[in-house]
Amino acid sequence: MSAAMATLRNTLGEDAFILSSRATSEGGIELTAALDPELPAEDERIKSSPAVKTVPKKTFQDWHGLDLSSFSDDGSELNYKKVFSENISFEALDLSVEAPPVMVCGVPGSGKTLTISRLATRLALAGIAPVVMTTDTERSGALEQLAACTRILGLDLIAVESSKMLENLCRVKRGKMPVLIDTGAVVPFDEKGMKILAGLQEAAEASLILVHPAGEDPFETEETVSWFHKNGASKMIVSRTDCARRLGGVVRGAMAGMSLAEASTGSQLIGGLRTLDPSRLNELMMSKWETASTISSDGPQKKLAQSVVPIVSRRAANSDSNLLKTNVSTVTGAAALMRHIAAQGGV
């Protein structure tokens, strides 16, 4: 064997490596060997390589669709936290018993009903029982979704059919417990729809809160938010921040006069909203911008795992009032909401 290897080295050189060996019938050794292909010199490889095109990273403002150049006198990098602090109003929601009723509004699909469910869950877990009302009695699934949540929490859900009914209900409940009111979707440029919303707000003497999703066109968002602000909305809850990568529209809308209150943190009911302030807004937007440089436009490919959650028993709604209560026996999405709350600790 040693003689065969010496012959191999003399023939192919020191870089040869043996692939296999076998004994021959004549008593000798047969080796199968190979050599790595010769590579061109390093400088030659660099010259022959195709040019790699790089896409320059967008600036913070370009990524979010903002133009804040007017806030920089010398063109230096802005302190965005300071800009937000000086030019945007941040105002927390008042969910106390003494506060005016909280009425949410927004465009279709903005997350109004989920927001009411989250606020009701927050209060219930704090030991406070709000009354939940909805004027959205025509849209399929809206009432059922709220009914599923309030039933688990043991809260009253009242379906309101008219402004007069809403006025009477709020007069009875105000000052005794927090009042949360869901409304039907409205397009801000629909004069009739906005007039109906204004009538509901006036009847309830409510604080009108806009729920609007992040990630939409900055100019469109600014215009929509401004219309709601002109029609009585004083604060905004930003929804779907976990699904969006750009928040320029939120900033533009807030700079148009709308106070920022909270933002969604995910799809969960418990802890699904977080109070906004200049620091948190800056952190959120910075993280979106920085992440954008490391994730492809197609997004990360992750396999979603199915979660296993326990079953939660249902509790009946309170019955100490003669007011109309809606408690649907079988509801669409009830099981999903029950599992969701159960997975996060239950109530």
From TrEMBL:
Gene3D superfamilies linked: P-loop containing nucleotide triphosphate hydrolases (3.40.50.300)
UniProt keyword annotations, A-Z: Cell projection, Cilium, Flagellum, GTP-binding, Membrane, Nucleotide-binding
Phosphoprotein recorded as keyword: no
Residue span, SRP54-type proteins GTP-binding domain: 99-287
Chief localisation class: membrane
Subcellular localization: Cell membrane
A UniProt-annotated Pfam family: SRP54
Keyword Lipid biosynthesis: no
Membrane topology classification: Peripheral membrane protein
InterPro entries in the record: P-loop_NTPase, SRP54_GTPase_dom
Family of this protein: Belongs to the GTP-binding SRP family.
Name used for this protein in its record: Flagellar GTP-binding protein FlhF
Species of provenance: Gluconobacter frateurii NRIC 0228
Lineage summary: Bacteria, Pseudomonadati, Pseudomonadota, Alphaproteobacteria, Acetobacterales
